[in-house]
């Protein structure tokens, strides 16, 4: 399967967009874009649609920079496709309608690829499998199960529900991570601007005083001189450091594991990340198991969906324990990563034969817990951030006015 995916992924680059003009069966002039892996393939698609081609040429640019398909867009696409198929609209016609309605180049490209592959006789699951960077294995497996059972609309709705809940959870975690980082970055940026642009104006005025400056003011002037002299070097080093760290994380699984383990130990943020990983694991496992995916395969899919390398390794270890005959709740207990509430719910689900329902309840509980913790974190951070910004900016302003105050007292 992995080899097949790699082969298909390598072939993605051969597909291009082809602009065409022609007449339909009623003789009306029409134009549009079709995605194909060659001019003859594009011509064949148009002929099947009853188009008398007048002009057909390759479009130069297929996907513009920055048009990567996001998980939120996949969730919207899945919901739209499920709704249209439930309404009785044929699959190809549904894909055409969704592709024509989106303005996102990357999403439109993917939908056109799906349409092209299905037109050539592939199933929807096979067409989706050619996009491993955008469509995960759970999506493919559930769609394949839906096609085999003749319940594609219901399975797509289940996938849409799953995607929407996972995306909502991700957005809450991002809020917890990005909000303080963004505000602190703005504070540092304002401080740097004051040091580089404003403080030098005061420095020229202080030179005419002919007296020693307060230590606090002198420290600020020294920081300003350093900022003026080395600001671009600092930006360059910071950018290079971030890029190097990103590259190292891509190449070193051990470094990723160390990062994720450290993240779980952070105060305030650590519990949010931990509960988010549990919620994503439970939601993915519940969705897979309810769709008829064997527990062992569902655990493998859930490992990658946890979003944390430490949890991923633990879940894969759980899979081995289940293969060896242990119950799921006992395997979870062995990892030491799951709390008593989750373990008890899973144990009850296994005994009652309702594991998927109990896992969904676990996911609901932890998702709500994450939301409450993020709201609490935000409310606590707001006054703290105000204090930090006040100290940074207010401290600089105070240091600049100290010599003026001392001069007034002396007079």
From TrEMBL:
Lineage: superkingdom: Bacteria
Compartmental location: Cell inner membrane
Segments forming domain Type II secretion system protein GspF: 77-200, 281-403
A GO term from the CC aspect: plasma membrane
Coiled-coil ranges per UniProt: none
Assigned keywords, A-Z: Cell inner membrane, Cell membrane, Membrane, Transmembrane, Transmembrane helix, Transport
Keyword Transmembrane helix: yes
Transmembrane segments: 176-196, 230-249, 383-404
InterPro entries for this protein: GspF/PilC, T2SS_GspF/T4SS_PilC_CS, T2SS_GspF_dom, T2SS_GspF_sf
Bilayer topology term: Multi-pass membrane protein
Pfam (any one): T2SSF
PANTHER family listed in its UniProt record: GENERAL SECRETION PATHWAY PROTEIN (PTHR30012), PROTEIN TRANSPORT PROTEIN HOFC HOMOLOG (PTHR30012:SF7)
Family named by the database record: Belongs to the GSP F family.
Protein's UniProt name: Type II secretion system F family protein
């Amino acid at each position: 399967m992995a080899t097949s995916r790699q082969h298909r992924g390598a072939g993605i680059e051969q597909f291009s967009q082809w602009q065409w003009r022609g007449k339909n069966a009623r003789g009306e002039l029409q134009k549009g874009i079709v995605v194909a892996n060659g001019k003859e393939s594009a011509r064949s698609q148009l002929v099947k649609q009853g188009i008398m081609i007048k002009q057909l040429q390759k479009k130069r640019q297929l996907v513009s920079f920055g048009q990567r398909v996001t998980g939120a867009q996949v969730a919207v696409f899945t919901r739209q496709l499920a709704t249209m198929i439930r309404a009785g609209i044929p699959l190809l016609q549904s894909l055409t309608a969704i592709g024509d309605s989106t303005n996102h180049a990357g999403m439109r490209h993917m939908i056109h690829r799906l349409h092209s592959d299905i037109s050539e006789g592939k199933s929807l699951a096979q067409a989706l499998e050619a996009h491993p960077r955008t469509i995960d294995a759970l999506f493919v497996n559930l769609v394949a199960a839906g096609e085999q059972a003749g319940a594609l609309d219901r399975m797509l709705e289940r996938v849409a529900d799953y995607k929407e809940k996972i995306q909502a959870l991700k957005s809450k975690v991002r809020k917890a991570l990005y909000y303080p980082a963004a505000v602190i970055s703005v504070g540092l940026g304002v401080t740097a601007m004051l040091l580089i642009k404003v403080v030098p104006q005061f420095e020229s005025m202080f030179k005419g005083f002919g007296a020693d400056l307060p230590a606090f003011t002198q420290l600020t002037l020294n920081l300003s001189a350093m900022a003026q002299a080395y600001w671009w070097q600092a930006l360059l080093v910071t950018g290079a450091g971030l890029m190097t760290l990103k590259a190292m994380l891509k190449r070193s699984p051990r470094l990723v594991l160390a990062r994720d383990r450290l993240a779980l130990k952070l105060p305030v943020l650590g519990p949010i990340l931990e509960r988010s990983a549990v919620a994503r694991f439970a939601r993915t496992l519940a969705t897979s198991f309810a769709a008829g995916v064997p527990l062992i395969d569902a655990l493998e899919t859930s490992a990658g969906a946890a979003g944390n390398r430490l949890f991923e390794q633990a879940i894969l270890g759980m899979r081995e324990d289940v293969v060896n005959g242990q119950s799921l709740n006992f395997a979870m207990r062995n990892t030491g990563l799951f709390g008593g509430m989750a373990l008890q719910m899973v144990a009850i689900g296994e005994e009652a034969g309702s594991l998927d329902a109990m896992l969904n309840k676990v996911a609901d509980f932890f998702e709500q817990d994450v939301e409450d913790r993020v709201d609490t974190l935000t409310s606590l951070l707001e006054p703290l951030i105000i204090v930090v910004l006040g100290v940074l900016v207010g401290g600089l302003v105070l240091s600049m006015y100290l010599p003026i105050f001392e001069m007034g007292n002396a007079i």
